[in-house]
Every structure is written in structure tokens, then in C-alpha cells.
Amino acid sequence: MSEHHEKNNNSQENVKKTKKDKIVTAVIILLTVFIIGYNLFSYYAPNIMLPGKTFDKVSGVDPFNGRNTTINFPDGKVIVNVWATWCGSCVKELHVFDKFSSKTKVVGVLKKPYDVRGFSRSRVRYRNVVADDRFFDDFYISTLPTTILVKDGAIDKVYVGPVTEKILSDWLASNE
Q1: Model's pTM, two decimal places?
Q2: CA–CA separation, 71 and 86 (whole Å)
């Protein structure tokens, strides 16, 4: 009889262990789905949330003299390069924006912290401002580099990741 009682206790323990395992597995799955969803939203949020948003100027600190400054965008198309001196992909693509700065207005928005010497060595030919963290929150930017096409004071297109000359050429050529 004690053998039967022991088997019954083992069976109950196995049921409890199986329930516990299922709960732990469910929690892990939910956390995984949440984390993946959050990361996807963080990456794609600018593409989803920004088109149509007014963006006719950017304010921040001038990276050369440390004074507050505002860059107003003219009517037409403006390319906004959101980057950081510590971002390797950002620095690599600077020559693309320099090339396009002779064709259209290009504005750089730097993320803190920035390296003054690194910025000076980059020799960008277009104006830049160092934006505060609120700018990045307001524009859902958590991935660098990010490129924004502003058309007549409103965001038209957003590209997250390193941009190519082809992408910028297509943006400038489109008459939408």
C-alpha cells in the first residue's frame, strides 16, 4: 500500500512540476514576444510615425562654438542626416551627404556625446547641430544613422540605417 501511495505522490509532484514548467515557458515566450515587438517598433517607429509631421527647423548646440543655434529649413527638399561621431556607419556615410550638399540643403543632427576633434576631422560641408535627447524621443529615433527627407516643412520619407547615393538620388528625383 505504501508503494501505491508513493506512486500517487510522485504523480502529483510531476503534475505540479509540469504546470510550473508550462507557466515558466509561457512567461518566457511572452517576454520574448514583447522584446522582439519593442525592438521592431523602435527600429520601424520613425517610418511609421514621422511621415507628415511638421519639421521646418532644428535647434541645438553648434558643434564648433557650443552656442545655441537654430537651422531653418527652406521650402523644397531638405535632407536631414541624424548621426553621431561615435557611430562607425554614420561616419562612413558622411561623404554621401557631402556630395549631395551641393545639390540640395543637407542638415546634420548630432547625438550626444560627440567628439569635437572627430567632428572637425570629418570636415562636413553642411551645417550641424548637437540636439538634446528630447529631439530623439520626439522623432522616435533610437537607431543611428537615420536619414529624413523633409519636403516643404513636413517629413516625407525616413530611412533607418546607412543610406546610399541611390536612395538619396531617388528621393530627390521623385516628384511626389
Answers
A1: 0.78
A2: 23
Share of the chain above pLDDT 70, in %: 87
CB contact set of 141 (below 8 Å; sequence gap of 6+): 46, 82, 135
Please give the grid coordinates belonging to residue 8: 500517487
Cα separation values, 17 from 4, 11, 23, 108, Å: 20, 10, 10, 57
Q: How many CA atoms lie within 13 A of 39 on its CB side?
A: 6
Residue 48 confidence class, pLDDT cut points 50, 70, 90: confident
And the C-alpha cell for 49? Answer: 510615425
- Rounded distance between C-alpha atoms, residue 19 and residue 73, angstroms: 60
Nearest to 157 by CA among 71, 79, 42, 95: 79
pLDDT tens for each residue of 5-24: 566 666 667 767 788 888 88
The DSSP secondary structure of 114-155, one letter per residue, reads --HHHHHHH--SS-EEE--HHHHHHTT--SSSEEEEEETTEE
